[in-house]
């Protein structure tokens, strides 16, 4: 998130989105060290790489539907990445719930599975 107060934030199983948005995976520091970057330079190089590779996916004036679609895409990307990544625990998936919070409408469910949907798996 930029200093302007908008942007994409994520947590939890973050490897997929780190790679997609930051341009590097969690192990980038260790990889740089293994490839000869001096330990005292690893953090600086890592920060510079993220600065150069960062993918801006949102804008302050983004329409709410675009923000909803982006959130859905990021969740589905994470689920797919974790599903196929042999090195990660299978800790995400299942029914996706999406809500939007706006100044004028407040909290509003956008995608919420019904009990019937969740019973189907």
Structure, described:
By secondary structure, the chain is mainly alpha-helical. It has one domain. Helices cover 46% and strands 9% of the residues. It contains 5 helices and 2 strands. Strands 1-2 form a two-stranded antiparallel ribbon. Helix 2 packs across helix 3. The longest helix is centred in the middle third of the chain and has 21 residues. The two termini are 34 Å apart. 2% of the residues are buried. The mean pLDDT is 91.
The percent range for helix content is 40-55%
Order of helices and strands: HHHHEEH
End-to-end CA span: 34 Å
The number of E-state strands comes to 2
Instruction: Quickly give the structural class.
Output: mainly alpha
Question: In DSSP terms, counting alpha (H) and pi (I) runs of 4 or more, how many helices?
Answer: 5
User: Strand fraction band?
Assistant: 5-15%
């Amino acid at each position: 998130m930029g200093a302007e107060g908008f942007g994409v934030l994520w947590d939890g199983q973050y490897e997929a989105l780190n790679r997609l948005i930051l341009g590097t995976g969690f192990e980038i520091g260790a990889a740089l060290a293994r490839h000869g970057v001096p330990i005292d330079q690893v953090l600086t190089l890592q920060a510079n790489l993220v600065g150069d590779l960062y993918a801006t996916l949102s804008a302050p004036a983004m329409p709410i539907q675009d923000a909803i679609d982006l959130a859905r895409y990021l969740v589905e990307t994470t689920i797919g990445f974790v599903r196929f990544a042999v090195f990660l625990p299978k800790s995400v998936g299942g029914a996706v719930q999406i809500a939007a919070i706006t100044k004028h409408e407040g909290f509003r469910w956008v995608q919420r599975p019904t009990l019937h949907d969740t019973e189907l798996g």
